[in-house]
Automatic annotation (TrEMBL):
<feature type="region of interest" description="Disordered">
    <location>
        <begin position="47"/>
        <end position="85"/>
    </location>
</feature>
<protein>
    <recommendedName>
        <fullName>DUF6444 domain-containing protein</fullName>
    </recommendedName>
</protein>
<feature type="compositionally biased region" description="Polar residues">
    <location>
        <begin position="47"/>
        <end position="63"/>
    </location>
</feature>
<feature type="domain" description="DUF6444">
    <location>
        <begin position="30"/>
        <end position="83"/>
    </location>
</feature>
<dbReference type="Pfam" id="PF20042">
    <property type="entry name" value="DUF6444"/>
</dbReference>
<feature type="compositionally biased region" description="Basic residues">
    <location>
        <begin position="67"/>
        <end position="83"/>
    </location>
</feature>
<keyword id="KW-0614">Plasmid</keyword>
<dbReference type="InterPro" id="IPR045618">
    <property type="entry name" value="DUF6444"/>
</dbReference>
Length: 145
């Protein structure tokens, strides 16, 4: 419901009869000013929401911090995307996590079976192969005499 309509319901003929005329004039001025400010706010919000897709602004004027609206082709039905699961690698270690007792306190499970496998892949620190190459120098024993 509009704010003006809600306040109009509060101003009954009885209220008007008991309100001094200067106060009614003041309320009228405030109502007119309120209406003008609301229209100004709507215009400013419309300007704020403009971008290159809905105005004649160049794309370079779009904010880099707001995600761009995705273009959709209305004539073609949307294709459902199907995700691709990563293939599980051969594990080097297996950790099995079994549920604890149920709400009644019974610790025994009937036919337990895995329902989810999560792989944690740790990239090992690279092993360094350090090779020392030593260059020797010396003098000829024949020509040194």
């Amino acid at each position: 419901m509009d704010h003006a309509m809600a306040s109009a319901k509060l101003i009954t003929p009885e209220v008007v009869r008991h309100t001094p005329w200067p106060m009614l004039g003041f309320v009228h001025e405030l109502t007119v000013e309120n209406r003008k400010l609301r229209l100004e706010i709507e215009a400013l919000q419309a300007k704020l929401n403009q971008n290159s897709a809905n105005s004649n602004k160049p794309p370079s004027s779009d904010s880099p911090f707001k995600p761009r609206a995705k273009k959709t082709n209305k004539t073609e039905p949307r294709k459902k995307r199907i995700g691709v699961r990563q293939q599980c690698l051969r594990p080097t270690e297996i950790t099995e996590l079994h549920p604890g007792p149920c709400a009644c306190g019974c610790p025994d499970l009937i036919d337990p079976e895995p329902y989810y496998i999560h792989q944690h892949i740790e990239i090992p620190e690279p092993r360094l192969d350090v090779e020392h190459i030593i260059l020797y120098q010396g003098r000829c024993s024949v020509s040194a005499q």
